[in-house]
Write a structure and sequence with these properties.
This protein is an alpha+beta fold. It has two domains: about 120 residues, no CATH class; about 60 residues, no CATH class. Helices cover about 25% and strands about 30% of the residues. The longest helix has 23 residues. The chain is elongated, with a radius of gyration of 21 Å. The two termini are about 30 Å apart.
């Protein structure tokens, strides 16, 4: 019915690599691919193996579960979208901490009603956007902090600080294509 590839981490795997929980749910333990470094597996390519793989009105939903965390929706496949490259929404490596004994990251796949999925379709995008906004804000704050002075209980920064930061940000992004990826894009 479906297959997956973890870019730079695996060969194509069919659904037999997953443990089938019931007729509509499958689970794959990521530790077989990356051990405790599950956060290094950033994407999964999921594909349907044949046009008639799913019944009408159904979709193949994909979820990621960090160790000891909840399942997070990544995306879905259906007849008009038979494959997708999905970002895995792991927590930041620094925030994740050590992997508790006996737990590991997992990928879950389930067959669900297509009509039920659109409400969840933007959940992953909103989380990525929030993470990017936070990291850009941290970058700006750190830049401003290096130029600020103190006046009583106020921070004082030069008037052109935003222009200087934005120019530096644009220059770095144009010189290093990987720079923006560090912000979660």
């Amino acid at each position: 019915m479906f297959g997956v590839v973890f870019p730079e981490h695996s060969f194509p795997l069919d659904m037999s690599a997953f443990s089938q929980i019931d007729p509509l749910h499958w689970l794959l333990d990521i530790s077989s691919l990356a051990g405790e470094a599950y956060h290094s597996v950033k994407e999964v390519c999921v594909f349907l193996l044949s046009p008639g793989s799913l019944p009408a009105g159904k979709a193949l939903a994909v979820y990621a579960q960090p160790p000891s965390g909840p399942f997070l929706f990544c995306g879905a496949l259906h007849a008009s979208r038979p494959s997708a490259l999905l970002r895995l929404p792991w927590p930041d490596h620094a925030d994740a901490g050590p992997v508790p004994a006996g737990s590991s990251a997992k990928i879950g796949v389930s067959i669900e009603d297509l009509a039920a999925l659109p409400a969840m379709a933007d959940a992953g995008k909103e989380e990525v956007a929030a993470k990017v906004a936070l990291r850009v804000g941290e970058n700006l704050f750190n830049f401003m902090q290096s130029f600020c002075g103190v006046d009583g209980n106020r921070l004082v920064v030069p008037m052109d600080i935003l222009d200087r930061w934005f120019k530096k940000f644009q220059e770095r992004a144009s010189k290093d294509p990987g720079y923006l990826k560090g912000f979660g894009l």
